[in-house]
């Protein structure tokens, strides 16, 4: 027995009941996510129209699954490969369960767990920047019910992987526990985001703002930033290290390179023009986004600017403001899927500003403010969203692709030129991989040209789709195939017809 035990009496045994954890956040976020996910999955095979980008990323995931390298053709460092490596981990399952599905439709289903994680993280980030439960729920629903999300969120885009990982980095940087491993994990998550889609790198300052606000200057902040930098560098260095070990870090004769691809992206790629210039690619793209959902884009942009003055909202506002600034820059390249990165930050900003406005009123007045917001949502937002959401749930824009895939599966294997939407369907149907040719590679890949010593005459069929016909003048072999072939089957309406064309061996 020690002296301390003699002086101080032993503590009485505790009779208090164990404290039960409040699981309201868990039940609320999971319940709302389940509802949105059901809407996202409904008619996912029918809408929107399958794009060549989706087919490309899915084919690259197939190459990873089957040990064919990082892509189904020579990987040229166009984008970091981590997104389709992640896709490869789960894209095999839907096709195994329903083998008759269009390959892109099966790939879209494999994206659903990722989108569920993104929805949950929108709620988590909202709560960690101080939003009340109802506001975090509004943020989740604003994001998930937007017609833009129900359209773009269904598609197989690298941006979807990147934005989920950057949201995870924000959630970890805002951790209330402030453990160093959380900050290191935030750095690792940010690195995974960049290795999924390199353009997400511009949002990194938002994570640093969150880290700064969530740490104390004299104690945890230096260690937190050190841990974050360690996670970021240790994970991020794998990609350039991979290129270095393969002798492909710098441009050289006879091989692709990482820096060569960066030079192309930054200097050689043609821009989309200014969004303020009528008729430019960027202006047309902005109008297409506004067509689907002007409510979230306009309200989100306004809320983002307003949220910059609210300290707790600043990490999310900085992310949104940077994305707005990048979209507004003149002459840069603006891809169609760029809006995928914008939507969650706009949704959180809208919810955060709404919560701030409500908090300015006395408790007895808040219900009046909430009632006004509900009425506005029901009379202004709901009618606009109903049209877009209804189309997402009912349209069947991929019927022609489904019929073309079914036709190709029934034919004996041959040398066929297709877009990347149908590439994997042909391979899965038993066509030899080297005899299914993505149309872009006919004129742009010397290895493909070497397999066709007779040029277009060595091709048996070409499947003419809107993507194949989009700009044939820049692809002379594709043009020759279209000119020297006849239609043997066609599917779909005239403005989006898909034709199976048999190639004549003699010029017409």
UniProtKB/TrEMBL annotation:
Coiled coil segments of this chain = none
Q: Provide the membrane topology annotation.
A: Multi-pass membrane protein
Keywords (A to Z) from UniProt: Cell membrane, Glycosyltransferase, Membrane, Transferase, Transmembrane, Transmembrane helix
Start and end of every Glycosyltransferase RgtA/B/C/D-like domain? 116-235
The reply to whether NADP figures as a keyword in the UniProt entry is no
| Pfam families membership | PMT_2
Say if the entry is tagged with keyword Cell inner membrane: no
The record's section on InterPro entries has:
LipidA_mod_glycosyltrf_83 (IPR050297), RgtA/B/C-like (IPR038731)
Q: Where in the cell is it found?
A: Cell membrane
Q: Where are the transmembrane segments?
A: 26-45, 83-102, 109-125, 131-149, 156-174, 180-211, 223-242, 289-309, 316-332, 338-357, 369-387
Listed PANTHER family: MANNOSYLTRANSFERASE YKCB-RELATED, MEMBRANE PROTEIN
Q: What is this protein called?
A: Glycosyltransferase family 39 protein
| Organism (species) | Paractinoplanes ovalisporus
């Amino acid at each position: 027995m020690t002296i301390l035990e003699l002086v101080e009496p032993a503590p009485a045994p505790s009779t208090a009941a164990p404290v039960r954890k409040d699981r309201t956040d868990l039940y609320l976020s999971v319940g709302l996510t389940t509802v949105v996910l059901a809407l996202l999955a409904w008619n996912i095979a029918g809408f929107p129209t399958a794009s060549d980008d989706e087919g490309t990323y899915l084919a690259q995931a197939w190459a990873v699954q089957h040990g064919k390298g990082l892509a189904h053709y020579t990987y040229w460092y166009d984008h970091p490969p981590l997104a389709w490596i992640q896709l490869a981990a789960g894209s095999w399952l839907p096709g195994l369960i329903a083998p008759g599905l269009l390959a892109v439709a099966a790939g879209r289903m494999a994206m659903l767990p990722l989108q569920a994680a993104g929805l949950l993280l929108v709620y988590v980030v909202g709560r960690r920047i101080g939003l009340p439960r109802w506001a975090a729920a509004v943020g989740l629903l604003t994001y998930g019910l937007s017609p833009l999300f129900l359209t773009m969120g269904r598609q197989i885009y690298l941006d979807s992987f990147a934005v989920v990982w950057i949201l995870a980095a924000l959630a970890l940087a805002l951790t209330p526990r402030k453990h160093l491993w959380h900050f290191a994990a935030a750095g690792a998550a940010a690195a995974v985001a960049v290795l999924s889609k390199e353009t997400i790198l511009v949002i990194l300052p938002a994570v640093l703002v969150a880290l700064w606000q969530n740490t104390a200057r004299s104690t945890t902040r230096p260690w937190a930033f050190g841990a974050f930098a360690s996670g970021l560098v240790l994970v991020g260095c794998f990609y350039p290290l991979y290129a270095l070990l393969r002798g492909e870090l710098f441009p050289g004769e006879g091989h692709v390179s990482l820096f060569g691809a960066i030079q192309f992206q930054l200097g050689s790629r043609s821009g989309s023009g200014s969004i303020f210039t009528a008729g430019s690619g960027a202006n047309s793209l902005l109008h297409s986004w506004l067509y689907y959902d002007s409510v979230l884009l306009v309200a989100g942009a306004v809320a983002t600017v307003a949220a910059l003055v609210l300290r707790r909202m600043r990490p999310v506002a900085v992310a949104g403001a940077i994305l707005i600034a990048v979209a507004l820059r003149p002459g840069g390249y603006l891809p169609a899927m760029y809006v995928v990165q914008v939507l969650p930050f706009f949704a959180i900003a809208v919810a955060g500003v709404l919560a701030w406005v409500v908090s300015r009123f006395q408790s007895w007045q808040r219900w009046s403010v909430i009632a006004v917001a509900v009425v506005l949502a029901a009379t202004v937002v709901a009618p606009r969203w109903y049209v877009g959401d209804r189309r997402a749930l009912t349209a069947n824009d991929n019927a022609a692709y489904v019929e073309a895939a079914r036709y190709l599966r029934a034919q004996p294997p041959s040398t066929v030129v297709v877009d990347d939407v149908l590439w994997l369907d042909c391979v899965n149907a038993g066509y030899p991989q080297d005899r299914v040719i993505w149309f872009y590679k006919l004129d742009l890949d010397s290895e493909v040209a070497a397999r066709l010593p007779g040029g277009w005459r060595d091709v048996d069929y070409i499947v003419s789709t809107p993507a194949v016909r989009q700009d044939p003048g820049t692809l002379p072999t594709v043009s020759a195939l279209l000119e020297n072939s006849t239609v043997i089957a066609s599917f779909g309406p005239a403005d989006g017809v898909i034709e199976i064309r048999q190639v004549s061996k003699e010029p017409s």
